[in-house]
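Shipment paperwork, digital attachment
Item: protein structure file
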Amino acid sequence: MDSKEKKGYPCPHEGCNAAFSRPYRLSEHLFVHFNYKAHRCTEPSCDKSYTNRSHLTRHVNTAHRKPPAQPQTKFSCPSCVKSFSNPQNLKRHVKEYHSPDSTRNPNLICDDCKAEFRTRNLLCAHMYSHTGIKSFRCECCAKEFVTHNEKRKHMRAHKTYECPDCPLKMDTYSKFKEHKLMCHKMEEYKCEECGMTFKQRCYLVRHIRTHVCTKIFHCPYEGCQRYYTRNSNLKQHIMVHHLHYTYNCTICPAQLSTKAKLDYHMNLHKGPKKDKLPPKTKATGRKPRSDLGATKSSTALKLAGIPETLVEICMK
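Attachment content:
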């Protein structure tokens, strides 16, 4: 018997040359083509999912069952300065960037170790392992970095946001936005007829049409006397009343005129149904009246100041 099992289950997906020795492995592989992640993490507050059970097991062991006191192990790439938290990510990186059949098409070669790179920034970062010189320097503070990504993150500290309305400068966008809202309110467009205000001029122009109807849109269908001040309302009227174009509910026979009304209607179906309680009777346990058999007094007599004893004598 051969030491290697014959892979008799090839992938039927066009352009994929993968083959497997077991049918269940082929089934798990097909999930990759359809982007279906059937294996979900069952840990609380974790929404990770994977196409392969082994990937899920690796995630649980590294993310949820790792001892907190154990120091984290780094797996460094032998061809560049990148490091990874597990050997699987390192293997994927080497296959993608440094293998002979890599799709990245590297065209830059290191003169010392003949390692190939796809960009000049990666080559410059790699040279630090040979020369010990950091190739990326900040133009503002002359601080040096090994990789271009580290320099790019550092440059955020030098970026400032200047307020166009005052000479104040801020180092973060959140502070700049808060300053604009607190100190320089946005210009508002006010309607002279009713006093309503709007953030944009186009909203004010559309609102003014409700006061001054310069154009009336009449329904073109014979026998229909409806008219509107906006063309969009006329189109909605024609679609619903003349073309009978409605949004139908898939649960009940309801027909709605707009998509928004249909969404609101569908949410009513999703809500919990409250069962109506039957009315209580004496047979089902209704309590007797607490004032049963007692003499009733008139509120009007009480307000008039007539004592209840006198009322009882008069009623006899």
